[in-house]
Write a structure and sequence with these properties.
Elements lengths: L1 H17 L11 H8 L3 H13 L3 E4 L3 E4 L16 H22 L2 H15 L3 H18 L4 H12 L4 H10 L2 H19 L3 H20 L3
Antiparallel strand pairs: 1-2
Helix pairs in contact: 1-3, 4-6, 4-9, 4-10, 5-6, 5-9, 6-7, 9-10
Organism: Pseudonocardia yunnanensis
Pfam families: FCD, GntR
Keywords: DNA-binding, Transcription, Transcription regulation
Length: 220
Amino acid sequence: MLAVERSLRALLEQGTQDGTLGPGSKLPTERDLVERLSAPRSAIRRALEVLERDGVVIRHVGRGTFLTEAALPPADGAPPDTSPAEIMQVRLLIEPPVAELAARVATQADLDRIAECLHGGEGSEGFEDFEAWDARLHRAIALAVHNGLLISMFDVMNTARSLPVWGSLKRRTSSPERRLRYHEEHAAIVEALRDRDPTGARDCMRQHLQNVSDNLLGRH
């Protein structure tokens, strides 16, 4: 059974690397996996049980088996001396076109996951909670592009948000009013994604990130 488990993990790893699989993606059926891995169905089921126990997949009766974020390979971190200005410069270069592409190719499952993050941010209490949902929302939009290389690049950029210099500056410039404004800007991005409006998604993302940059760096 261990060999089947390794083969299944390798199959999932290949999918996450080439962008055909991502968090929320539905795995092939047990019958398909039997054919792909040339393994007995009982061994496939036991391997899936192990992956579920490890948090790599989640199984829903009657719906199938789905990949979780735990299946994604960890990304190397951003340089420790990365400045907030550098972070925002890169975000402005990368995230608007990512939102544009997501509006074209996102699945309904992707849109549902993005909407969940939006609602989480709306109901958040305080700075830490909002920041967590903010990061999840932006990553969910990137995941909707289904490109493993892009996700790796995005995750390197996103690790910079855990650097002390970023956190302290973000906390100092945060307020309930600004968090409300950011939520409204997030809602506009999500609406454009739902409307399959690539230009609108790109422009709303760019405007949102420019506002974040201006607030962080004092360009009011």
